[in-house]
Amino acid sequence: MRTFENRDWLIALLLIVSLAFIGYGFLLKPGSVPYSPHSDIVSYHLAAKEVLFRSIQSGQGLPFWRADQLSGGPAFTSPNALYTHPLHGLFYLFPPAAVMGWTIWLHLVTGACVFYWVGQSLGLSRWPRLLMAVAALFNFKVLMAVYAGWLSFLPSLTFFPLLFAMVFRLVKCPTPRSALALAAVGGLCLHGGHIQLVYYSGLFLVAYALVALGHLWRTGRYPEMRRTAGWLTASGVLAIGMAAYLLVPLVAEMPLVSRGLASTKFFFSLHSLGWRHLQTFFHPEALGSPLDGSYPGIELWEDVAYFGLLPLLLAILGGILGWRRSPTRFLVVSFAVSVLVSLDTPVVRFLYEFFPGFRTFRLPGRMLFLTACFGIALAGIGLEELLARLREAAGRPWRSVLPAVAMILVIVGEGMFFAYRYLDTISRADVAPATDYGRFLASDPTLFRVAPVGPYTMTYGWAATQGLQLISGYEPFNLRHYQKYFLLMQLGGNRVLGAATWTDFLRVERWDLFDALNVKYILARKPQELPLDRFEVVGQYQNQPLFVLYWGMHRNNVIIYRNKRSQPRIFWVKRIVAAQGEDEAIAAIQRHDLRDVAVVQNAERNDEEIPDSPGDRATVVRVSDGKLDVETQNLRDRYLVISEVWHPGWRATLDGRPHPLHRTDLALMGAWLPAGKHQLVLEFRPLHWHIALGISLISLAVFLILSTFEFTRTRVVLLHQPPG
Questions:
Q1: What is the per-residue pLDDT across 183-235, written as a single tens digit (0 to 9) for each?
Q2: Is 149 left (phi over 0), alpha (psi -120 to 50) or beta?
Q3: Which CATH entry fits the domain spanning 570-684: 2.60.40, 3.40.50, 3.90.320, 1.10.260?
């Protein structure tokens, strides 16, 4: 029996890989990168992976901090980073642009294999499993995620269906082996870029587990109920433990990010789905397409419900004919509930207000990814029931194979049509081009930051490849105190802050805050009215490449202004103003000029003047993402402002000994330095990093020990079984 199963698996894998090459092989074309005008790959992911590749190749290991945008910010703990996900391993070895297509292709193949395994866990025969795999491979929802460049979403889309299969298996057979399998899959899902889908999946799985445990309790099977609940709990704890090195810093950092200030406007983000969107269940372009601008909401990938017309019809058939099968009823109810929760209804608004964690994420329409998962599973059940009836009616098993093959070919044909319609590639030379202004800025050997005016001057995602550090950028999980600093700098007053993803530099009211960010150059598309005593034009370049999200590739003129009053990355100040909290710090900043004054929060020393010493110096001798080496020489105690974005994960040593850092000027850092010559070293680590890493290593060791024991025990039992 096992031989036949292995043979079926091998045949299915060969078929999936072959179809993936046929349907998506053009994504693997050498020298090209998957591209669309709406792609996050160009605007975000190439830069994030460039930071990883650069850090690995320089021998510095995983990058915990990235300096290419927003004046610096956490890299490793961003859910979009995915620096330790198994399917992103190619980015350790090759430049991101070289392996972006292969990474996406691996996700698609793995996702199809996952659905084949889900079909096996549902007890389906080979043809329904193959249909599920093919439907997943050419699932229009996933295809649109590729079109939108959702590299951070793809790992979750790939593996979350396996989470359902593992829970089904454990409830059916509550054994240590099932629990370990669920723990492995759970840990893998928690490594996915967007835990939104894992959160949604968890809601449905908790409901499924409670119903199953309730059934065991009602039927008096108390030992089995306790065993099932115990193994479910143990597997969950072990999965969380193995992912603790990611989850603990991420949770600890949540109070620092602007996402915690989300409102209903941010939650829906102009994507409230109405009943009319249900038309897309039957045709993906029923309301229009972003290819020709006919779709009114632009972002069809967020709103579309289509996962294949034939799979939808088979899903309806599966819900009717397979109602008595397990877990058909759960899949049918979940399908309906997921559709309801994806729409802008009172149910969703109630969940937003009162259900724990629901408001943490945005765009509830993403629940439709779960809808597609439930639909494909029901389609497999529908084909199983249909083939069973055909075999009974025809009397010859081979006649039932023909309809299955025909259906699979129809799904493949439709999938290839949409793949070639929506997916495209672009030359690597165009997706991360060398620019004239980039070469000019790279010729400056000093350490500085750049301020592009607006989002249409240069592509934020190109800063990393050109070795630039921007004060603006695109990061959905940005730091809220930097956003407040940015608002103060641009508007001159305290404003109500909300969740944000794009941080664009548009104007300046407080030049002292601007100078303190070590901004040496401003880039602009057209001449700017800047103070003549501050700025001079040092370069003008015509016809420069530019990528603008939703517009695509363009050409642009770039004017470079040099800021003659830019502060260095580290500088001494002449006066300290103490502040006890963020509000008090903002009020103090509004009263003082930060060229010579530092507003220090929770300082152990009160307001005081510091005599200037002309011979004092402070020099940055080495710098990299998340690390800064400084040499200082000063005649008396002085306060050094460090123009790096404050985060409690920064640690400092002075001459090899731990040294306190202070939050300075709301979003920067600073330190008191005693008189003399010193070496100050700053290094960033995620919050509770060592504790979290220890928990993960211990959990992984426990998992490996238990898995080895269970594998050995199973082998011993099999060896001692009588033949036959």
A1: 999 999 998 767 888 899 999 999 999 999 999 999 999 999 999 999 999 99
A2: left
A3: 2.60.40
